[in-house]
Amino acid sequence: MEVWELPTSIVVGGIDYEIRTDFRAILDILKTFNDPDFENDEKWIVCLTILYVDFGNMPPQDYEEAIEKAIEFIDMGIKDDGKKQPHVMDWEQDAPVIIPSVNRVLGKEIRAMQYLHWWTFLGAYMEIGESLFSQILSVRMKKAKGKKLEDWEREFYKENKTLIDLDVKYSEEELEEQKRLNDLLNGKGA
Q1: Residues with Cβ < 8 Å from 145, sequence gap 6 or more?
Q2: What's the pLDDT at 175?
Q3: Measured between alpha carbons, how far is 36 from 119 in angstroms, rounded to an integer?
Q4: Helix H or strand E encompassing 107
Q5: CA distance linking residue 111 with residue 77, whole number of Å
Q6: Which 3 state secondary structure label does DSSP give 77?
Q7: CB atoms within 10 A of CB 170
Q8: Residue 69, exposed/middle/buried by CB under 10 A (0-12, 13-18, 19+)?
Q9: Which Pfam families does the entry link to (predicted)?
């Protein structure tokens, strides 16, 4: 993938497929991957359907390559070092604090833009400096790694717990089981 250009297509199985590159489409893909109601193979089908404009015309034998290239595009060609990192951010939950930070980096309101390429959005995201979002991430990272918070961080956490604590996402099945167990514990079960 050529990093000096903003790609609008991906070659899979020797065919050049147009892709959806607006940041909102990619965030929809990432939202799907965080949804516990989807099975893993369903997540990939949603990803490919959103990303590749003509996914319906892609032969199934090319899906694996399409997935690899989708990952490469979404990650902007940046290779993962393979080290397990703690989960410290959620695109959907953190949107209210990410958006103002990206707006500041780009100098414009991104939600008002008709189109913003994912790589431009991701580049601006990576350039977020000192901000509410960076403070939230710092506290989350320390907590995830079991590091002691400084006094100001403890105070910040106490005052912003709902912004800092990541929501736990349960599937419909898990929610039903929790309800069943609560009903049993409260004497409402059969």
Answers
A1: 86
A2: 65
A3: 27
A4: none
A5: 25
A6: coil
A7: 13
A8: buried
A9: Phage_Gp15
